[in-house]
Amino acid sequence: MDWVHCNNCSKKPSANIAFFVSACGHVVCSKCISKTAESPSPPISNEKCRVCHVDTVLLEINRSLRPDVQVLFQNPRTLAVKYMNTLKGVMDFQEKQRARLHKLESEQLQKTVKCAREMNTMLKKKTANEKQLSTENKDLKERLDAMERDMANMARDVAKKNDEIEKLRRNAAASSKTPGSHPQKKYPSLNGDTPMQPLSFRDVSHSTPMDMFMNRRKTLNTHESAPAHDNLFSLNDSILSADGIAFGACSTAMATPDILGISKRPTARHSSEFTPNF
């Protein structure tokens, strides 16, 4: 410390002379202060600085000096190395923390990018699915509308058919209640199950008077001993006159109902006679 000297008398440190540092930043020797050098080393208060003449506190410069004051008298290189090491440690610590933070942020960024890509892929799939579902929904709606239209048409057809059935039922009921109507008799048809109306020649003009024929038949039936060949195809007695009609044996065997093969039934007009009923 070749730079240490008394700021008042310019003396340099020696074995017999003590030096003091003031709170105002000056260095003075023991001879320049009011007290002797043999005075104790604790801080000297209520002393005026010999340089700036202000009240100050003096501390003796020795190895027991406070660290914050002692550092003023250390070698700058030593301090530089010491502080550089300290600074390096501080810088290393901060750099490690900064690198750790950068790594964490980088990992979070990568996770965020990955999540964003996955979300983008999911969004594309969802958009495609929504588009497909929208198309299917549109098709189903069109089909549903078509089915509703078909059902409406079918309902109208059913209602129309029901109206027709009800009309036919009313007509049938009205016809069954009409006076003089009789239920139809079922007879076997010629080539199916279609019922046939019963036929009758009662109200039809006959080529041969039927009633007179039946009366004549009663008389002819008494002649059972007549030969069969005389009764068949004999026209000797079949003479038509202005007064009436006479029938021969042919009338008995080959009358009109007999030729048609239709049985006869009694009528209300002649209860004991047979009248052909078709």
Question: Mind sketching the topology for me?
Answer:
Blueprint: E1 19-22, E2 27-29, E3 44-48, E4 55-60, H1 67-70, H2 76-176, H3 210-220, H4 228-231, E5 239-240, E6 245-246, H5 249-253, H6 256-260, E7 264-266, E8 274-276
Antiparallel strand pairs: 1-2, 1-4, 3-4, 5-6, 7-8
Organism: Panagrellus redivivus (Microworm)
Protein name: RING-type domain-containing protein
Keywords: Meiosis, Metal-binding, Zinc, Zinc-finger
Notable traits:
single chain; 278 residues; alpha+beta; 47% helix
Give an account of the 3D structure.
This protein has 278 residues and is α+β, with helices and mostly antiparallel strands. Among the domains are: 19-73; 210-276, no CATH class. 47% of the residues lie in helices and 10% in strands. The strands form 3 sheets. It has a 4-stranded antiparallel sheet, with no helix packed on it. A two-stranded antiparallel ribbon has the order 5-6. A hairpin with a 6-residue loop joins strand 3 (44-48) and strand 4. The N and C termini lie far apart (166 Å). This is RING-type domain-containing protein. It holds the Pfam family zf-RING_5. InterPro entries: Zip3/RNF212-like (IPR042123), Znf_RING (IPR001841), Znf_RING_CS (IPR017907).
Distance between the termini: 166 Å
Order of helices and strands: EEEEHHHHEEHHEE
Shape: rod-shaped
Q: What percent strand? A: 5-15%
- The pLDDT mean sits at 73
Number of strands: 8
What does the main sheet amount to?
A: 4 strands, antiparallel
InterPro entries: Zip3/RNF212-like (IPR042123), Znf_RING (IPR001841), Znf_RING_CS (IPR017907)
Domain RING-type: 6-53
Region (Disordered): 170-196
Protein name: RING-type domain-containing protein
